[in-house]
Amino acid sequence: MDNFVKKILPVKIRRATEGDVNDWAEILHQSSENIYSQYVSRDYMDNNYNIEKLKENFLEEVNKSNGNSELYMLTVDGTSIGILKIGKPIKYYSDGNNYYRDDIDGIGEIKSLHIMSEYQGKGIGSQAIFFAENRLKELNYQKSSIWVKMQNSKAIDFYVSRGYQKTNYINPNTNDKAPSMVMEKSLRVKLKEDNHQEREY
Q1: What is the per-residue pLDDT for 191?
Q2: Would you state the torsion angle of the CA atoms of residues 193, 194, 200, 201, taken in this order, to the nearest 10 degrees?
Q3: Is the pTM of this model over 0.70?
Q4: What is the predicted pLDDT for the residue at 189?
Q5: Where do the domains of the chain lie, and which CATH numbers do they carry?
Q6: In what order do the strands lie in the sheet with 79-87?
Q7: What pLDDT was estimated at residue 195?
Q8: Fewer CB within 10 Å: N-end or C-end of the chain?
Q9: Is the pLDDT score of 1 beyond 50?
Q10: What's the rounded Cα separation, in Å, for the pair 110 and 21?
């Protein structure tokens, strides 16, 4: 019977700092190669998801003080095994168009969630989503949103299983040529603290 019991690894979630630059870039690089390279061109991956570019983007963002995003590290037993970014959705994209709601007040976004492949399937993603939703509630958002690549059926199924719904908001003109869709979930229900999860802001 024990073979059928899923082992849940408790995860610690803390704010990212400049000192996390190497771990952040490595985790995002590995995850992106495993997922996006299946339907994103090699040239785009090499230009946008190389380690040095990811380090540069991280350092630029972690030092911003505009409050639009919060960056977090997911750790297990002191080892960085995942990354999480949440905040306020952007309204206009690089092509100047708005592919989401006209009114995004009250809507938060899970902008990025990546977990190293060897730590997937251990409940870490669920704990990260739980943390993100509670943090968005603390920031007074009533709804959580996330952009998901339409080819990424595994991610879509994951979010559906956690109460997210597909919407008709689609960006067909992404820079990587892989169309994305918004998924949403209401945050009106009071969420309880998870004993498996440590929180640091």
Answers
A1: 45
A2: -50
A3: yes
A4: 54
A5: 10-194 (3.40.630.30)
A6: 165-171, 180-186, 143-149, 107-115, 79-87, 69-76, 11-15, 197-199
A7: 45
A8: N
A9: no
A10: 20
